[in-house]
Amino acid sequence: MKSVDKILRLFVARYTIKWEKPKIINELNPYYSNPDVSNLFSKNDLDCKNEKDLIRFLSNGSMVSLNSEIVSKITNLSSDIDSCMMNQTFSQSFKELEHKIEKGDILLEAPILIHFKDGSYFCYSGRKRAYLALKHDIPLVAFLVKQS
């Protein structure tokens, strides 16, 4: 009977993600581990001299439902999810997320999205979570931080 329930869920039930505010202290890695991120901050005159500055900047946001227009403007969120699957590490952890959602609705921290002064959007963290929502046609909510 369990397998029948799973099959029915795949065809008739819509997956849902309950989005929660990200724990900023756990989301600092992209800035320090990826030189492209820190360079992008510098290019956009966003000066985070230390961890305290970075935490202060990233903490100043709000939870926002994203429409397709905003999603299309996110510079590092490819519309071709399959191309991202070529990265084995990315692919494996994405499959783990998909497996969790197939078991039922899940609670995830919202991706952090930065809206720079020039009007561009950048997914600072949580791309796999964003892809999961987009792939399964689930409303995407992000923690939106606007550069002032």
Shape: globular
Indicate the mean pLDDT: 84
Task: For the largest sheet, list the strands in their spatial order.
Answer: 2-6-4-5
Q: Specify Rg, calculated over alpha carbons.
A: 17 Å
Provide the domain count: 1
Instruction: Classify the beta-strand content into a percent band.
Output: 15-25%
Task: Report helical residue fraction.
Answer: 40-55%
Please report the number of helical segments.
Answer: 8
Number of strands: 6
H-E string: HEHHHEHHHEEEHE
Low-confidence stretches: none
Question: Helix- and strand-based class?
Answer: alpha/beta
Main sheet summary: 4 strands, mixed
**N- and C-termini, Cα separation:** 55 Å
Could you walk me through the main structural features you see in this protein, from its secondary elements to its overall organization?
With 148 residues, this protein is an alpha/beta fold. It has one domain (15-146). The chain has helices spanning 2-12, 29-33, 35-43, 51-59, 68-72, 81-84, 88-103, 127-135; strands at 17-20, 61-65, 106-109, 112-115, 121-125, 141-146. It has a four-stranded mixed sheet with strand order 2-6-4-5. A two-stranded parallel sheet has the order 1-3. Helix 7 (88-103) packs across helix 8. The mean pLDDT is 84.
Spell out the key features of this protein.
alpha/beta, 148 residues, 19% strand, four-stranded mixed beta sheet, 6 strands, globular, 8 helices, two-stranded parallel sheet
Secondary-structure topology with pairs:
Layout: H1 2-12, E1 17-20, H2 29-33, H3 35-43, H4 51-59, E2 61-65, H5 68-72, H6 81-84, H7 88-103, E3 106-109, E4 112-115, E5 121-125, H8 127-135, E6 141-146
Parallel strand pairs: 1-3, 4-6
Antiparallel strand pairs: 2-6, 4-5
Helix pairs in contact: 7-8
